Amino acid sequence: MTVPASIPSDEARRLEALRALMVLDTPAEPLLDSIARMAAEVCGVPIALISLIDAERQWFKANVGLPGVNETPRDVAFCAHAIQMDDVMEVPDATLDARFAHNPLVTGAPDIRFYAGAPLMTGDDGDRVGTLCVIDRKAHQLTAHQRALLRSLSAMVSQALDMRRDLIERAFSVRQEYEKALSESERRYRTMVEAQTEMLSLAWPHGEVFYVNQAYARHFGQEPQDMVGKDLFAYVEPADRALVRERIAEVFRGEGSTQGENRMVSADGIERWMAWTNSCLLDSEQRPYLHSVGRDITAQKAAERALLASQQLLERTGRVARVGGWEFDVRSGSISWSSETRRIHEVGPDYLPTLENALGFYAPEARDAMTAVVRSALDAGQAWDLELPLVTANGRRIWVRAVGEAEYESGVVVRLFGAFQDVTERRRMAQQLADSERFVRLVTDGLPIRIGYVDRELRFRFANQAACQRFGLGREDVIGRTREDLLGEPTPPEVAQRVQQVLAGTAQRYESDEVRHGVLHRIESQLVPDISDDGTVRGFFSTGIDITQRAAAERGLRVLTAILENTSDFVVQTDLRGQVTYMNPAARRALGFAPDEDVAGHVFTEFNTPETNALYAQAILPAVRTHSMWVGETTVYAAHRRVVPVSHMVIAHRDGEGRIQHFSAIMRDISEAAQARAALLKQTATLRSITEALPSLVAVVGPDERYQFVNSAFERWHRVPREQIVGRSMEEFLGAAEYARSKPMVQKVLGGETLTFDKDFPQRVPAGHVTIHLIPLWSEPGAVDGFVSMAQDVTSYRQEAGRLLALAQHDPLTGLLNRAGLQAYVGQKDLAVEGPLLALLYIDLDHFKPVNDQHGHPVGDQLLQAFGQRLLALVRPTDAVARLGGDEFAVVLAGVRAPAHAEAVAGKILEAAHTPFEMGGLRLSVGASAGLALGTDAAKGWADLMARADDQLYLAKRSGRGQFKGG
Fold first, then answer.
1. Using N-to-C axis directions, what is the helix angle for 795-808 and 819-827, rounded to 10°?
2. Strand, helix or coil at 657?
3. CB atoms within 10 A of CB 847
4. Which one-letter DSSP state was computed for residue 915?
């Protein structure tokens, strides 16, 4: 049976407040309809109502989604229950609620399942006259954000009802005052006519009165004979005298009769308005005199002021509501606009609207629609209510609501009239609300963070995708259930204590261990109370982040940070504007900054010499923007403006889309070149950055080698949905070749062994590399019941390691291999097989020191770079060219089957060294000496080959330079 709501204790006062609103059984109003539509949109339901609870019924002031229904009996109304609540009353599923399960509105049309209603509280006492409610025909649950929006929209409706009542009461008051003034005016007019009370006076041009009638004298409380000889202007209000004198002067100038109004003080001391008709007459002696007939128009003035006040009130009301009016006279073709309509169109009071230019204000895409409804109204009297885009006279694009209807005379449309409202802000707000809701859903589901909302009964009311994945269930299976229901185990005592504290109003933040699929994870959780305006905790928001990989990344970051903080190289980072954002301790010490001194107010150009700043503008920044890196030597200022030469590397750090985010500069003091070269590897270590760990690929495999579970990361990696994986055997899913590669590891883990190994997938596009952990699952001691596979995608780590290794093995000046790079190149060779076919050339430039002494290090650096390029041009891609330091170079030739081949290359190298170098207008000649060593084996090794080449170089230099020895 239906359970009707109880009658509130203040029912009589509540009904009185409802009646005072003067809203029951009134037509629909655009503002309230718009709020109802907005409530339906933001809550994602088809039905929204503004319901007012009368003594025996609930009546709908606004109705969205229930056409043809205006009211229902009160005893079946959900809203009759909602008005007794302090906050939003929500019924997720009416069929499960004892109050409503048998309600005819649930068992029959309109088939209510979900209901949420926020009470409407009006007047100073907050009387609950009804609700703003939203309804769905299927079970539903509002988010906390939607509940807050419904609460805010309910407050807007309450405020609108109060303002509507106040405006009506003020309009009634103005109308009563106007009617009263008009009645008084009519009474006075009748008395004046009946008593022949028109005032008559005769006066000479200079103002001396020589006759007044009884009515004139009575007005001033005198007898007519007492006013003869008096000054006519003495009885005029001083502020009006100048105007009256000018008006009478016009009469005597022969400009005919004049009419005017001015104020005069009557016998009772009250200022009164008089309307005068003044004429110039001639007496028997042809002397001109003034003939004046006046009547009291004070009451008329009062009525005009009341009417003007009423009109101004209506204008102000229109401005507040942003609603204007308009009228189109079909017979004359003229259009009238109210001032608010003109303001919306941004035109002045002198603008003359026509039907054509009025339609022309609508945006091109809306003009046809508006023209059609106007034509339909003219032809068939069809009313309209549209929201369309409009372009104002100032070119501003807005949205307006245009409402119109036709007026008939003798069955013919003679007039169109209606209202005009700027709804731009309302549409923008509605769009923002919709965008905000959509954005929140997209963001929360896209975050790798568990986000949920739990009520006081510890049931989930919201859970994002990550939270649902934790339980391995869909969102619909999580909502409404507790943590214990979902996990099938009691809540740990320490977690239960945290929950009690957050329900007491204290936010919680803690870390805990969690075992999923046999793997231990570290989870960082936050619990934030949801506190209502009255201080009641309604539930709490929860977030959970798997920080297992982050903890490992943070350990790596601490190691790299320690390197940066302890390196002797100067490391400085700046933003795109050159503002310093980081400076390591070595740079601070060199510049004289304290360890804790704020460097954010400095720009990098402060620490560069003028020459370096010029080089930045001309070469460094263009190169960095194009190639992401520049390497060279510059000079910078240390403390006390001491100039220090440095080996300088500038790096551009880019985001995933290739945009530069910030710059790093790594500088090494090369005042002592040997020290700078020895520290090169340390310098390149500062170039490393940390990539964020990717989610692990998790799979559970049974003892029959069939997949029992895979996570979403596993799906994404293999690009196969889990329903096509679970239940299949490893051989069937992986394929014969990959299964054969994996089978030895599978057999070991099924034998009870825990394994960790790396695996490459070169056939994958792009190629991938993973680190795999296989962990046996034990059903009982000694029995393996399958295993868990956890794979971490380490492709980015491999790629980063390769990039850093390449930086560490190359000379920053010439781009050639350095000593470490050369050793790495040879280390890749199988000396037992390839050693006898290797040839090593040690090369030392002759006469290079005078170049530096006479032309400076920058010119010397350019010569070294040019010589390096000549060496590269002389050898094959499979050979190696390195700069070992200073002006020393080495060339490794592979696959040399005859000494003559290596000797020919040596000769070409000496020839290339002796060929003059063109350097910016300079023609520089040096030369070179070389030592050649051929062949080695695994027993003697690389060291033997280097020692022999070095001995031959020494012999060549002792023999007079410019030649090579060995072979």
1. 120
2. coil
3. 15
4. S
* 50 C-beta neighbours (distance < 10 Å), count: 29
User: What is the DSSP-derived secondary structure letter of residue 618?
Assistant: I
Q: How far apart (Å, rounded) are the C-alpha atoms in residues 508 and 966?
A: 77
Sheet holding 288-296, edge to edge: 209-212, 199-203, 288-296, 271-282, 258-265
3-state secondary structure 96-126: HCCCCCCCHHHHCCCCCCEEEEEEEEECCCC
Question: What is the C-alpha to C-alpha distance for residues 406 and 554, in angstroms, rounded to an integer?
Answer: 74
Look up 887 and say whether it is catalytic. yes
Which amino acid, 75? D
C-alpha count within 13 angstroms, C-beta hemisphere, residue 741: 9
Q: Cβ distance 946 to 843 under 8 Å?
A: no
Which of these, 131, 147, 136, 116, lies nearest to 44 by C-alpha position?
136
Give residue-wise pLDDT tens across range 416-449: 988 889 999 888 887 876 676 566 667 677 777 8
Number of neighbours of residue 497 by Cβ within 10 angstroms: 11
Model confidence pLDDT, tens digit, residues 440-456 = 667 677 777 889 999 99
User: What does the alpha-carbon distance between residue 839 and residue 782 come to, in Å, rounded to a whole number?
Assistant: 60
CA 857 to CA 865: how far, in whole Å? 12
Instruction: Answer with the residue of higher pLDDT: 170 or 693.
Output: 170
Q: Name which of 36, 19, 20 is nearest 28 in CA terms.
A: 36
Helix or strand (DSSP H, E) at 372: helix 364-380
Residue identified by tokens 């009691």 is 490
Mean pLDDT of 1-28: 89
Q: 678: pLDDT confidence band, cut at 50, 70 and 90?
A: very low
Span of 156-160, 607-611, 679-683, 742-746 with lowest mean pLDDT: 679-683
Sheet containing 629-637, strands listed edge to edge, beginning at the edge strand earlier in sequence = 580-583, 570-574, 660-669, 643-654, 629-637
- Which residues, 6+ apart, have CB-to-CB distance to 144 below 8 Å? 453, 461, 462, 530, 541
* pLDDT at position 615 over 80: yes
Q: Where does the pLDDT of residue 372 fall: very low under 50, low under 70, confident under 90, or very high at 90 and above?
A: very high
Distance between CA atoms of residues 532 and 85, nearest Å: 14
3-state secondary structure of 850: helix
Say how many residues make up the chain: 967
Q: Which of 27-36, 75-84, 680-689, 927-936 is least confident?
A: 680-689
Cβ neighbour number for residue 81 with a 10 Å cutoff: 20
Calpha distance 694→701 (Å, rounded): 22
CA distance linking residue 834 with residue 934, whole number of Å: 12
Token pair for 915: 């060929």
Active site residue: 127, 546, 811, 887, which one?
Answer: 887
Instruction: Please report the pLDDT score of residue 797 as a whole number.
Output: 66
Q: Kindly indicate the confidence band of residue 680, based on its pLDDT and cuts at 50, 70 and 90.
A: very low
Question: Cis (ω within 30 of 0) for the bond into 766?
Answer: yes
Most confident of 110-114, 485-489, 595-599, 677-681: 110-114
What is the maximum span of the chain, computed from C-alpha positions, in angstroms? Answer: 156
Identify the sign of the CA torsion 892, 893, 896, 899. Answer: negative
Taking the C-alpha atoms of residue 713 and residue 470, their distance in angstroms, rounded to an integer, is 13
Whether this model's pTM surpasses 0.85? no
Q: From CA 470, how far away is CA 517, in angstroms rounded?
A: 11
The token duo for 417 is: 């009239």
